[in-house]
Design goal:
The chain is α/β, with parallel strands linked by helices and 281 residues long. The chain has helices at 9-23, 28-35, 39-51, 75-79, 83-94, 109-118, 131-140, 175-182, 207-219, 257-266; strands at residues 26-27, 55-58, 61-64, 102-105, 125-128, 158-161, 165-166, 172-173, 188-191, 195-197, 201-204, 223-226, 238-241, 248-252, 271-274.
């Protein structure tokens, strides 16, 4: 069988993960037919997903790994998931940023994708508790290797890194971060989540991160959640905001029609679907 060259590996693995989670398990031969790829390709994809800790390989296929509400994957493990969705979400979110404003980016891989889009927005003040986000914005202002002196990006962002204790997801939390955030005010907060639901609101498995996120939400005039479709219905150990405190949810086209209806009911006019239209169900 000839591999379907129209699908990048990351897209194919995202489709496989969605299928595993939706059905509670799949067989290799089912995936080869569905994706029109070889048996060997599917097995390589399942190996990659198993290394990321999101599926468990079983004889002839794979089943989902059910994460405990206290489990917090590291940045590298999360960065390989839903890459296309995160890029689409970041492109939609950056359109909400006005040059010259003060914004906050809470840590996480979707915020990291957004930071890469923000490098072309001028005269921003960006407060973040993400080492990765700060690195992206600082690096963008340096001259390219071999460039003439003084050729750094003009009017780049002023970056404020909160300080604090680093989590597995490279986010800085704790009393130092909380104190820094309490003294500030942001036009817009962009925040990723471990989980989001009607009942639990926004949640994370890290208690200290939940407290820091509460301060971010209180300090923002507008709260924009950036989260791919896999986060809907997931509940972490600690909630840090109610859904009613969210102004806008930016997600991707993988979100089911039923979920969209539920979100629109509780967040009227606040749902932005990046990269596509509603799926038919």
């Amino acid at each position: 069988m000839t591999d379907n060259q129209n699908l990048l590996a990351e897209q194919r693995r995202s489709l496989i993960l969605d299928e595993v989670r939706r059905r509670g398990g799949v067989r290799v031969n089912e995936l080869t037919r569905k994706l029109n790829v070889s048996d060997m390709t599917v097995r390589r994809d399942l190996d990659a997903l198993a290394r990321q800790g999101v599926v468990e390989k079983v004889h002839g296929g794979a089943v989902p790994v059910v994460e405990a509400s206290t489990h917090e994957p590291g940045f590298e493990a999360k960065s390989g998931l839903e890459l296309r969705a995160k890029e689409e979400i970041a492109r939609a979110a950056v359109a909400m940023v006005t040059p010259g404003t003060a914004i906050a980016l809470a840590g996480g891989t979707t915020a990291y994708a957004l930071a890469q889009q923000l490098v072309d927005v001028t005269e921003l003040t960006v407060v973040t508790n993400s080492v990765r986000v700060a690195d992206v914005l600082h690096t963008a202002q340096r001259p390219a290797p071999g460039a003439a002196p003084g050729s750094a990006r003009p009017r780049g962002a002023t970056v404020v890194l909160t300080g604090g204790v680093r989590t597995p997801s490279d986010t800085l939390v704790g009393p130092v971060a909380d104190t820094a955030i309490r003294t500030l005010h942001f036009d817009v907060l962009f925040i990723g989540v471990h989980g989001i639901s009607v009942e639990a609101g926004l949640s994370t498995p890290n208690l200290a991160e939940a407290e820091t996120n509460r301060h971010f939400v209180r300090a923002a005039r507008r709260v924009v959640v950036v989260a791919d479709h896999t986060k809907w219905g997931t509940v972490g150990l600690s909630s840090f905001a109610r859904l009613a405190e969210v102004d806008t949810l930016v997600t991707d086209a993988g979100l089911s029609a039923a979920a969209r209806e539920e979100i629109e009911e509780h967040l009227p006019g606040g749902l932005v679907v990046a990269g596509g239209t509603a799926p038919e169900e």
